[in-house]
Amino acid sequence: MRPTTSLSLSLLSTLLLLPISTLAAFTGEAEADGVKFDFTQLKTHSVVVEHKQDPTVLKSNYTINPTGKLEVIKDEKDQCPDGTQVCMISRLWRGDKPDDGAEKVIPFGSIESPKDLEPEYTIMRDEEKKVLGLNVTFHGPEYGDKKQSAIVKFLCDPELTGLEEPDKDGKGTNALKFISYEGEQVATLEWRTKYACEKVLETPAPSQGSWGFFTWFIVIAFLVVAAYLIFGSWFNYNKYGARGWDLLPHSDTLRDLPYLIKDFLRRAVNTFQGSGGRGGYSAI
User: Fold this and answer.
1) Is 88 helix (H, G, I), strand (E, B) or coil?
2) Burial letters 116-146, b for 16+ CB under 10 A, else e
3) How far apart are the first and last CA of the chain?
4) Are 148 and 107 in contact (CB under 8 A)?
5) Can you say how many angstroms the Cα of residue 277 is from the centroid of all Cα atoms in its chain?
6) Which residues of the chain have pLDDT under 70?
7) I want to staple 63 with a disulfide (CB 3.0 to 4.6 A). Which of 46, 118, 164, 208 is the partner?
8) Distances (CA, A) of 70 to 64, 85, 177
């Protein structure tokens, strides 16, 4: 596990929390103030906290599903109610075996919360307005005479996906970390993940696609015609001393071209019109 430095703690203590809104249920997505968060790639995750109470050890398991309710295990009696999104289950262990029955089973939030218990979430920023992550507060029912809530701080960490957890020997990094359980009423957890980093929507660069066949055909045809006119004009000038229109190759044809086109169009019109009602004869 990576230790939390005093510098990071002081930084978080001076965060500027900008409220976004409340939700009927937190499903892992949020967007506001030009910032979009998407935690839907995360899955149910847990962190275990141990408190030694010789000769026993109290192990508290905090579990959260950032996209919906926790799975209900069939025939398991010690679990939070169906619909719970954040749950803590504490058990006493003697040696390597847990006691029968849990000491505490506390739900901190439900996806079916009434309006007064809807989760709240805020963007976390530092003093320079840089986005540090998303703060989500889940409100649960009372346990004993204390209303329970859980604060989950999704912190930006480009090096972690958020799915990391130690192996059975306790080696490795757990992306989810227990911070405190103040007054047996407010549990605070930190979840480090790259999905909590600010996403900047970049303007796509203009397309640099290659030219199509028709474009290349036009370009090549233009170059061929230009080369033909230039070479033909040079040839007529040097061999015949031509000037003006006579410089162009086939200048007679080019001069007659408007008349040829006009004659062609007239004949085409006459062909399509036919003789009308004149029995096949055209007017003279």
Assistant:
1) strand
2) eebbbbbbbbeeeeebbbbbbbbbbeebeee
3) 105
4) yes
5) 73
6) 1-24, 32, 113-116, 200-210, 240-241, 243-248, 250-257, 274-284
7) 46
8) 7, 6, 18
Q: Tens digits of per-residue pLDDT, 198-217?
A: 875 444 445 555 677 778 88
DSSP state of 175: S
- Residue pair 107/81 in contact (Cβ under 8 Å)? The answer is yes
Q: How far apart, in whole angstroms, are the C-alpha atoms of residue 106 and residue 81?
A: 9
d(CA 12, CA 16): 9
- CA 33, distance to chain mean position in Å, is 16
Which two tokens mark 187?
Answer: 């549990």
If 0-12 CB within 10 Å is exposed, 13-18 middle and 19+ buried, where does residue 270 land? exposed
Place of tokens 């249920």: 25
* Residues contacting 197, CB < 8 A, separation 6+: 131, 133, 156, 157, 158
Q: Does residue 39 contact residue 65 with C-beta atoms inside 8 Å?
A: no
Q: Residue 108: name the closest of 171, 165, 26, 40 by CA.
A: 26
Q: Which residue has the tokens 């540090």?
A: 132
User: Which strand (E) or helix (H) includes residue 64?
Assistant: strand 56-64
